[in-house]
TrEMBL record, chain A:
<dbReference type="InterPro" id="IPR003439">
    <property type="entry name" value="ABC_transporter-like_ATP-bd"/>
</dbReference>
<feature type="domain" description="ABC transporter">
    <location>
        <begin position="6"/>
        <end position="256"/>
    </location>
</feature>
<keyword id="KW-0813">Transport</keyword>
<dbReference type="InterPro" id="IPR050319">
    <property type="entry name" value="ABC_transp_ATP-bind"/>
</dbReference>
<dbReference type="GO" id="GO:0005524">
    <property type="term" value="F:ATP binding"/>
</dbReference>
<dbReference type="Pfam" id="PF08352">
    <property type="entry name" value="oligo_HPY"/>
</dbReference>
<dbReference type="InterPro" id="IPR027417">
    <property type="entry name" value="P-loop_NTPase"/>
</dbReference>
<comment type="similarity">
    <text>Belongs to the ABC transporter superfamily.</text>
</comment>
<dbReference type="InterPro" id="IPR017871">
    <property type="entry name" value="ABC_transporter-like_CS"/>
</dbReference>
From TrEMBL, chain B:
<dbReference type="InterPro" id="IPR035906">
    <property type="entry name" value="MetI-like_sf"/>
</dbReference>
<feature type="transmembrane region" description="Helical">
    <location>
        <begin position="135"/>
        <end position="155"/>
    </location>
</feature>
<keyword id="KW-0472">Membrane</keyword>
<feature type="transmembrane region" description="Helical">
    <location>
        <begin position="261"/>
        <end position="284"/>
    </location>
</feature>
<dbReference type="Pfam" id="PF12911">
    <property type="entry name" value="OppC_N"/>
</dbReference>
<keyword id="KW-0813">Transport</keyword>
<dbReference type="InterPro" id="IPR000515">
    <property type="entry name" value="MetI-like"/>
</dbReference>
<feature type="compositionally biased region" description="Polar residues">
    <location>
        <begin position="1"/>
        <end position="17"/>
    </location>
</feature>
<dbReference type="InterPro" id="IPR025966">
    <property type="entry name" value="OppC_N"/>
</dbReference>
Length: 324, 297
């Protein structure tokens, strides 16, 4: 039995909507609504879904950049949302975030050396010389040169900047990297370079990844297991081979059929989704997907399907499967 | 340190000696000829103010009623005023008060305004509400009226006029930096800093503040000019510099009755103010560019 590095248990995050002159709460956006999964040491878990399905919110909840509304997140068996800020700081060393936009995630006024040095300063590595040496080594590890340390972020290309972002995340020797759409702002040719770098680093430093993306091809390339999210809920979670070959949930099927095929004569499947994603402030009753689902049954409109294990390691939340 | 490495330059040039951001900023400032011109004007006036007693051709307070309202001549280069006092000497001596006024007012309002604005913008919620409402109250008064009220409470002298002008400028700087902080703190590199585990103070001083100061620097150089004029207005009302002290604004105010008869009484102090303002503005522009790493190279 593999050990889970991170366990997410029925996590919910509701953002209040305030209105009126007194800022009363008039509603809430259910950005994440009861999501559970586990991440095992050394694996890459992909999280996919449309814009607004809550995948980035999960990433921020895992790092406690946002507080959970309900549920628990356990990292190495410690509930991180119950930790004091001092203990949390120690945990932060163990998990780091790689951002989507390499243009916005680096302070334009800091040189690369300072950007990479800062995590070490914050975590109390005193010696200036030691810090410098580690910065230089890390630059080389991510495929940059030592003299790049003297440059400002705007002097780099997007791919190089993302390498700097990855280097910053690795400075504290973390165990878990949460990559929030790390390649979606990059050119396709650069995407593969950065993905390969991430894979190499995973092998070198024994890293665990949570890879958030909306590009199914990218996720397939890098992930061991993939979770599919829809409107703040996890609808399917299994290893990436199974997911891509035998998707079960109707939403996963239609997502996969929407992946472009490099063949001009290819006839698009009939499973392409119609309609808009419903509002997360007023999600449909029952199964959140029932408004767009081709196989919608009566029970889907009233009862929310449980997220259950259909076959070993294959979880689905759908009334078509299991005994719900 | 010679130059920062250019894009093609290979490894290991400046590895041993990291260049400081301030040295970099100065280097790019020095390259900017217009900024250096502005700096020269400012330095010139500062030197004039420092050495005023040695370079003044006449005593700036001594009346000479026979030679009153004389135009520029060999004896009085810039003419004389209604008491026959030498205008050049008065401008030279007035530089002391006017520059001091400009600097100290602006320094005071930047210090107070920025502290309040940063706290309001960074912490938000009720702190922001309270501070922003205070700014609103200050801005609700016509500024010169508020200044008069403050001087009336504190008593009429130059120092109280400075305090009054500093106070009325506080909300300008406060709101300026508050809005900048509000936008900067949503940047992803701030989220990155938080996820590293950085505390608020470090985020504030290393990330938020350096990225928020640019508009304040520019606004500050402009405010030096308005502060000089605002104190002049108070002096005009008898609430600022008291005779026999002299500042440029007071000279302008005193000469208003002789505008047609003796225009030099107004033109030359006006030129002095204009040059100082110009110097500060050019310097401020250069400073803004020098402090922005994206403008380099």
């Amino acid at each position: 039995m593999k050990l889970p590095l991170l366990e997410v248990n029925q996590v919910k995050k509701y953002f209040p909507i305030t209105g009126g002159i007194f800022g009363r709460k008039v509603g809430e956006v259910k950005a994440v609504d009861g999501v559970s999964f586990a991440v095992y040491k050394g694996e890459t878990l992909g999280l996919v879904g449309e814009s607004g399905c809550g995948k980035s919110t999960i990433g921020r909840l895992l790092l406690r950049l946002l507080e959970v509304t309900d549920g628990e997140i356990r990292f190495e068996d410690k509930d991180i949302h119950a930790l004091s800020s001092n203990n949390m700081k120690k945990i932060r060393k163990e998990m780091q975030l790689v951002f989507q936009d390499p243009y916005a995630s680096l302070n334009p006024r800091h040189k690369v050396e300072k950007i990479l040095e800062e995590p070490l300063i914050v975590h109390g590595i005193k010696g200036k010389k030691e810090r410098r040496e580690r910065v230089m080594n890390m630059l080389e590890t991510v495929g940059l040169d030592r003299y790049h340390a003297e440059r400002y972020p705007h002097q780099f290309s997007g791919g190089q900047r993302q390498r700097i972002g990855i280097a910053r995340a690795l400075m504290t020797n973390p165990k878990l990297i949460i990559a929030d759409e790390p390649v979606s702002a990059l050119d396709v040719s650069i995407q593969s370079q950065v993905l390969n770098l991430l894979k190499d680093l995973q092998a070198e430093f024994d890293l665990t990844y949570i890879f958030i993306a909306h590009d199914l091809g990218v996720v397939r390339h890098i992930s061991d297991r993939v979770g599919v999210m829809y409107l703040g809920r996890m609808v399917e979670l299994t290893d990436s081979e199974t997911l891509y070959e035998e998707p079960l949930h109707p939403y996963t099927k239609s997502l996969l059929s929407a992946v472009p095929v490099p063949d001009p004569d290819h006839q698009p499947d009939s499973e392409v989704l119609t309609g808009e994603i419903p509002s997360a402030s007023n999600p449909p009753k029952g199964c959140a997907f029932h408004t767009r689902c081709k196989e919608c049954m009566d029970v889907c409109k009233t009862n929310r399907p449980a997220f259950q294990e259909i076959s070993p390691g294959h979880h689905v939340a759908c009334h078509l499967y299991g005994d719900a | 340190m010679q130059t920062t490495p250019s894009l093609q330059q290979p490894a290991n040039t400046s590895i041993e000696k990291p260049s400081s951001p301030w040295r970099d900023a100065w280097r790019s400032f020095a390259k900017n000829k217009i900024a250096i011109a502005g700096l020269s004007i400012v330095v010139f006036f500062i030197l004039v103010a420092l050495f005023a007693p040695f370079i003044m051709p006449y005593d700036h307070t001594k009346p000479d009623l026979i030679n009153r309202l004389k135009g520029p001549s060999a004896e009085h280069w810039l003419g004389t005023d209604d008491f026959g006092r030498d205008i050049l000497s008065r401008i030279i001596y007035g530089a002391r008060i006017s520059l001091w006024v400009g600097f100290s007012c602006v320094a005071g309002s930047i210090l107070v305004g920025c502290t309040l604005g940063i706290v309001a913008g960074f912490y938000g919620k009720w702190v922001d509400t309270i501070i922003s409402r205070i700014f609103d109250i200050l801005l609700a008064f016509p500024s010169i009226l508020l200044a008069i009220a403050i001087v009336a409470i504190l008593g009429p002298d130059l120092q109280n006029a400075l305090i009054a002008i500093a106070v009325i400028n506080v909300p300008n700087f406060g709101r300026l930096i508050r809005s900048k902080v509000l936008s900067v703190k949503e940047e992803e590199y701030i989220t990155a800093a938080k996820s590293i585990g950085m505390n608020d103070a470090r985020i504030l001083f290393h990330h938020v503040l350096p990225n928020s100061m640019t508009p304040v620097i520019v606004q500050g150089t402009l405010a030096v000019a308005t502060a000089i004029i605002e104190v002049a207005a108070l002096s005009f009302l008898g609430l600022g510099a008291q005779s026999p002290d002299v500042d440029w604004g007071k000279m302008l105010a005193d000469s208003k009755s002789y505008l047609v008869q003796a225009p030099w009484t107004m033109i030359f102090p006006g030129i002095a103010i204009m040059l100082t303002v110009l110097g500060f503005n050019l310097m401020g522009d250069g400073l803004r560019d020098a402090l922005d790493p994206k403008m380099k190279q």
